[in-house]
Amino acid sequence: MRSYPDIPSAHHQISLLELLNGTGLNSDDISKYDERFLTNTLQKRMQEIQCTNADEYLDIMKQNTGEAGFFLNLLQIGYTEFFRNSLTFSVMEQIILPSMIQKKKDSKRKEIRIWSAACSGGQEPYSLAMLMEELKNGEAEKFSYRIFATDQNEELVNKASKGHYNENALNNLSLKRVNHWFTKKGDTYTVKQELKNSIDFSVFDLFSGQFSSPPASIFGEFDIIMCANLLFYYKNEYRLAILEKTGNCLANGGYLVTGETERQILLDQNYTESIPKSAIFRKR
Hints:
Layout: H1 10-22, H2 28-31, H3 35-48, H4 54-63, H5 65-74, H6 86-105, E1 111-116, H7 123-136, E2 144-151, H8 154-162, E3 164-165, H9 175-181, E4 182-185, E5 188-191, H10 193-196, E6 199-203, E7 222-226, H11 236-249, E8 250-257, H12 263-267, E9 271-273, E10 280-283
Helix pairs in contact: 1-4, 4-5, 6-7
């Protein structure tokens, strides 16, 4: 039977925050995370280095300040996939985007503005760009669009902007899309420049009080904001802060998109789901 190290108690979490602060790292970077996520990450790291309890792990961190930085990096949410929520992207492709494109033809502002607020390795904004380009079908005059892809992790943003992926990362893509939107060199698949042209990658902290939206976007007024698989990592007060910031940046009638497991968070706030189970919301 597989054994697990002790789950750190609230006391140990507080001690950890104090210890990290003593190493020069800001404890605020950890205190905003949901307790379950923080505890699971601690437990996983303790398993990796064969710690039997939290006290032993704290002793290791006191003796090796590099471990504090390593643990902080573990909390950087970097997992994502192309077309991660198939239902969400299907509704976007078949209902939301075609309707939006039609409305743009009759409006003064023709450009569709999208914000991928936690772009991680870039799979999400590239998935969106594929949909937009395929809906244009080579007819540039149909509409224009701009995707602003941000993440607080500079390393992830740099990786995303390069658009290099291994074969396993393309599992959710059809062979047609792989052949059309990527070039292969050795074992690496690289996103074609055509797909990158309408995406602006930049570092942006959703909790920053300095900017309400990515500076590159100049102003908010986003037609779609993707904030998927991010909210459940944080405590409720920080979830609400993200929702307030993104909500204020939505254009009139715009959509906020979350992950499947985060739907209830939006339903408990001032949002209505556009299509049941789609995780695509509008403000009430």
